[in-house]
Amino acid sequence: MKQLMDWTVRENKLLQEKIFHTIVEPGLNLYVLPKKGYNKKYAIFSTRFGSIDNVFRVLGKDGEEKIVVPDGVAHFLEHKLFDDEEGNVFDRFAVYGASTNAFTSFTHTTYLFSCTDFFPENFELLLEFVQNPYFTDESVAKEQGIIQQEIRMYEDNPQWRVYFNLLSILYQHHPVRNDIAGTIESIGKITKEILYKCYETFYHPRNMAVFVTGDVSPEDVGAQVAGSLARRSHAPLYGIERIYPQEQAVVLEQKIVQELSVSLPLVNIGFKDPYNYLEGRELLYRELAAELLLEMIFSKSEPLYNSLYEDGLIDEKFSASYVGEVTYGYSLLGGETRDPDALHARIMEGIEEVRKKGLSRDAFFRHRSKMQGEFLRSFNSLEFIANNYLAYRFKGIDFFDIFNTLGEISLSSVEELLEEHFQEKLHAISIIKPVQR
Amino acid sequence: MQVEKKTIPGGIDVYVIPTTKFKTVLVTVLLRQLLSKETASKTALLPSVMERGSKDYPTYRDLMIRLEELYGAGFSSDVLKMGEKQVLSFSFEVINDQYAPGKDLLRQATEVLHSVLHRPLLENGGFKREYVEQEKEQLAKEIKGLINDKVNYALERCIQEMCKEEPFGVYKYGSLDELDQITPETLYAYYSQLFAENPLDVYIVGAIEPELAFALAEELFARSNGQRRRNLPPDQVHKIPGEVHYYKEKLPVNQGKLTLGYRTNTAYRDDDYVSLLFYNGVLGGFPHSKLFQNVREKASLAYYAFSRLEKHKGIQLIGSGIEMKNYERALEIITEQVELLKKGVVSRDEMENTRRGLINHFKLIADSPYNMLALSLDGLLGEKQVGLDYYLRRLEEIKVDDVVATAHKVYLDTVYFLCAEGEVKA
User: Fold this and answer.
1) pLDDT of residue A1
2) Cβ pair A167, A176 in contact under 8 A
3) In the predicted model, what is the mean pLDDT of chain A?
């Protein structure tokens, strides 16, 4: 008998989009955003399990012992799910012309495919392979070779290195200071038992969500998900306690320098936001206010950017952004520069100058409406919508709320942030210098 | 996808792709020039100098503020290398009227674009000196900065070695030597000539009536009729290399980067280009392809192993990142896969999966204004204006024999290996 599902529908009049939500037994959140007229169908299956989740306790189980796993497990697991008894999952998607992939971030792991035809067949494959772990000693060893080369590739990537080096000194203890893929040493410690343990814990439907967008019907998608989940038995999951070390409102070190074969130095400057826990609306408000603040100081329409550019200290790829996650947050500035120390000094002076002069009301409104316009424009991309929707969902935020929340941000809250955010003791600088040969 | 075309005074073609699917309207102006070592840097330098200041927006800040006022309109200029051509692209993307009623953002943005293109800020018969000097500095950094991305560096270096006697060997930003010679006056003279004589096309994609779009384009972009060329000479595609050239370059790197450059003797403009797409797909375009399966999945030698086409020039590159000590083994596995294709060792699955994958790829084009534009641009460069329907039909027709026939036109030209000091046996 076909079961009628209970859908909640949220319509956003301004975006002219409708999103359907339901919870599928035993607790999976399913979202569908129909996009008429698109050939592409895009689906993602995400778990709230990222590189930072390496110490945890499974609630409601005997002992509830604390479990510590090697760095890089979430990413390793992501790779391994693409293999099972019958071989490689890529091949099966290829039969239906879909392209499939996955990515692991600090906070979650996402499996995805996009296709134009055979949506139900492809969707079934996605649901199946993510729910079907198959690890052997041999396949774990094989993957170690591949991931070693992935790590090596990033070791030669200056953009990547300058960023991870920064996080390694901005944080004293928090696992965000470790590379997502782990190290060649840490992945050597990964065994199939560890993978199964993490899988059972974090790949429980209650810790996961599915998002589908394209020209699809929510009812059909819902029925398919319900059918797939019903075929498996899941032990109840009472909860996962993720254990993160307490961070103090200081950085580990203020400066880190590495040499690589680059033509020009690269710089990342970070300002740590000293909260230990924020979620939902409060987190969204903070994130948007911080982004607005960075816009107002560093964007291409502001004097600081233009004077740094004219003096040859930055190029057009210079960027400033804010990252706000539940257990950590920071601002990140940087790019290529001929003189890292001069750029650093000028940025600190520039911030000080804005502080003295204050923020202009006109500029505030202009930047705010620009951010709203950019948000709207981004809705052309199905991937953007789906990936962000779940990433924000895991932070307790409705992605659709961004537009309106932006409208609620007040100049005074941005001014407050200007006073508190750029503290000397909360900032660090990471530099990649050209190798001296 | 429906494409309407009209030629406006000045020999400029305006293409309109009307669709209500997107939240934005995209306006792009494309200018084509031959790639050559005498002009590549001048061409590449133009967009950044033009962006820095026009008569109406004399500083970059003025332009950026104007964009913000237009609800955060997206503006980008770029220089692309497509075969032996450089393409300058100036794009605007604004929210369409449905989401910002009564603002007429499209018209306002197109006016800004017009200002950047046709009302440059001048002094003493040239572009503003200060801007030219600063942008030369920036472009020099860009040229030197190629080395920063090792994956790309290894591909580009292979092309440079392989095509050192051909225009295709010129880097898309040109060279420091050429850049050094540029003055505000020579650059302005070059700009004037380029915009008067070279092929210029305008694209508008989004929710707009073609007639309105043509009228807007004509009002702002029409020029006096002169001697504009409608096309540039085609790329040099055919070459049967003699013996294979091997290059090793040493840099302090952690991972070796192997690149193989092939002459396919087939280009976008050719009838059997679709067979070449298949050939590339079976070999290394997808995760189901021979390279990914054999170099990565079976031998566990690499994280990435792919092949890709320089479609207008008819060159295929294979790239893979490996441990230095595995150079011989990786090279052997890769060349073996190419031989297998020549011998027709292609499974039904490899054929059909590639077919579906390519069909999927082409159907997706209709979902992005930028991809529609890219397809049209390929048509301009290859002088082969075919739509999605053409590809979808041709992809259904290709058989293994076609792929094998294409494989027999493919020759290895150059093997390039980027590696660290002293770790490789030559």
Assistant:
1) 41
2) yes
3) 95
